[in-house]
Amino acid sequence: MNESEKKCSTCGGKAAGYKCDSCGVEAAEHDEKHSCGGNHCVAKCANCNQAETKCAC
Ligand SMILES: [Zn+2]
Ligand SMILES: [Zn+2]
Ligand SMILES: [Zn+2]
Fold first, then answer.
1. Ligand showing the shortest atom-to-Cα distance for residue 33
2. Collapsing DSSP states into helix, strand and coil, what is residue 53?
3. Ligand 1 center to residue 52 CA distance, Å?
4. pLDDT tens string for the chain (57 positions)?
5. What is the reported pLDDT for 38?
6. Centroid of ligand 2 to alpha carbon of 31 (angstroms)
7. For residue 5, what pLDDT is reported?
8. pLDDT score of 1
9. Burial 9-42 (b: 16+ CB within 10 A, else e)
10. Distance 26 CA to ligand 3 centre (A)
11. Interval between CA 49 and ligand 3 midpoint (Å)
12. How far apart are CA 48 and CA 16, in angstroms?
């Protein structure tokens, strides 16, 4: 595991864990079996604490 690889794909900043872009639940690790679908469990932007797909930084 390489923590430094986690980053927000929208702004390129650091990511702090993962967050669902649909229901907003947070997870320490990517949850492929998340109820909304594993593809909704995306990196959480450390700057705005939003899922990277909702990042507005
Ligand atoms: Zn971001
Ligand atoms: Zn969800
Ligand atoms: Zn952001």
1. 2
2. helix
3. 5
4. 455 578 999 999 999 999 999 999 999 999 999 999 999 999 999 999 999 999 999
5. 97
6. 10
7. 73
8. 47
9. ebbebebbebbbbbeeeeeeeebeebeeeeebbb
10. 15
11. 6
12. 10
Dist. CA 43–CA 13, nearest whole Å: 11
pTM: 0.88
Residue 32 DSSP label: T
Is residue 43 helix, strand or coil?
strand
In angstroms, the CA 53 to CA 24 distance is 12
Detail the DSSP E strand segments found in 1-57: 15-20, 26-27, 41-45
Q: Are 32 and 41 in contact (CB under 8 A)?
A: yes
Residue entry with tokens 């872009």? 21
Q: What are phi and psi of 19, to 5 degrees?
A: -150, 140
